[in-house]
């Protein structure tokens, strides 16, 4: 009977235990030599909503055409350029400038384009262009504490920060097999990411772009617990029932 009890306990431990390798991030940190990482420029996509603020230097009080203009009034007109959505054809419809194609441009390219257009049309001299993508988002599913769609305002976001938005992985998240889905140039790419290795820092998928989907797969323990036996509590109840039955039969 004692032998059977010991075997039962061992089986329970096998179903419920996780090792350090299952839960630690960046496990080769001691061997890692620091290197530089450059974030790529985000390219504008359909349905992006871009806040556009256009300001003028404090010393400027005239339009290029010589008409006196109050700076405060210019700021009110500039506020109309906030929150413009890229339409299904890749255009922005802008006051004073009309309908302009912006699909595939980076924020810097759009900023330079707007600056040149405004100056060439004589609207403002040396305008300061401030752009912000206001509906940037990613979706994270699976073994995280707060799954769902998360919006962010950061210009640059990486996968570790994205996981932080989601409240970290659960103890059952498979850290060496994270799935990332990205759409770019009408093509969908699916890659596997290993968060236990510092090689992630040199991966082009370390950076998270708006529209990315992250799937945190369950580890072996979680998969076993989701099977016919259920969780470790259910297993313990089952073993207790078996032991009780054996005792009754032997008596």
Tally of domains: 3
Largest sheet: 5 strands, mixed
SSE string, helices as H and strands as E: HHEHEEEHEEEEHEEEEHH
Q: Evaluate the radius of gyration.
A: 28 Å
> From the helix content, strand content and strand pairing, which structural class follows?
alpha+beta
Low-confidence stretches: 8-16, 60-81
Cα end-to-end separation: 12 Å
Helix content: 25-40%
At CATH level 2, the architecture of the largest domain is: Roll
CATH class of the largest domain: Alpha Beta
Instruction: Write down the CATH topology of the largest domain.
Output: Outer membrane lipoprotein wza fold like
CATH superfamily (homologous) name of the largest domain? Outer membrane lipoprotein wza domain like
Q: Kindly estimate the percentage of residues that lie in beta strands according to DSSP.
A: 15-25%
Q: Order the strands across the largest sheet as they lie in space.
A: 7-6-12-9-10
Strand segment tally:
12
- Write down the overall geometry: elongated
Q: How many DSSP H or I helices?
A: 7
Kindly state the mean pLDDT as a whole number? 79
